[in-house]
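Dear support,

I submitted the protein below through the web form. The confirmation email said the job was done, but the results page showed an empty box. After a refresh the structure appeared. I'm attaching both so you can tell me whether what I see now is the final result or a partial one.
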Amino acid sequence: MEVIELTLTPQGCREALMARLHELGFTDYIEGSCDHLDEDAGEEQAWVDAFEQGRLELPLVLYSYDESAMTQLVEDLQGQFGPHLAIEWRRIADAIWQTAWEPGFEALLTERFCITDVHGKREPGGRQPILLESGLVFGSGQHATTQAMVRLMENVCTDPGADGRFLDVGTGTGVLALVAHYLGYKNLLATDIEPDALMIAQRNQNLNDVSFPLMEGSLPPVDAVFTTIACNILPPTLTHLLPALDQRLAPGGLLLLAGFHEANVEPIRVAWDRLGLREKKRVEERGWIALALEKPGL
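What the results page shows now:
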């Protein structure tokens, strides 16, 4: 079975586009990458710089097996936004994408957590419940990268200690920061370049009676140092962010990375080798990888 990939690139209408998608019931997406840009011409770095500074209207990428629904969506959006929205349609038979999203998702059940939509009915069964309002931001637990990252954190973040400091870069719904809170981190910071994501993350804090700082932007100042940093972002943006993440990671700290498939892990491996980071733990979920990289101590 083929999956339809729909890439929507707004031109001055991002907030209105997101609102319209929500009205039509399309409540999950991922942000496009810059794979198509010419690195030698400097286009890729310019894209990454704009992304980090929040100046770029990133494309929204939706996936569906329902061609009829996607066709109706395209017709609606063309009528709503006309020349202010570029739409690209692609059929994908690759099993990588077919297995990325868990169909019929109700709850992410792990050893310690039950992560579910705020309207979900799933009983936690002794696990720590985390309620989420996902809206139009990434991190509902439906995607394999989020599932792999939560299971990785359960494995390697078991004893953060009193001085544990956790940074969640590109927090989306705030789910990873919430997991970190319940794993024992007392000092947390979550960042996102999207104000809508931060609004959802704040709602999810309130739903779970948890509080930690939220920052609009990509990264905190370089002098802010953390013992654990989590970043679940699509490559190659992730690869470009690695040196900046390493700067903010304390010696002996853990860098938790996700957002990539086993088919495209090699460029990221080269980047972390260059920084002297060592792989400590790997979790795979339907071919998608979450890594714990350790920074050498002093």
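Response: this is the final, complete result; the empty box was a page-load delay. The mean pLDDT is 82.
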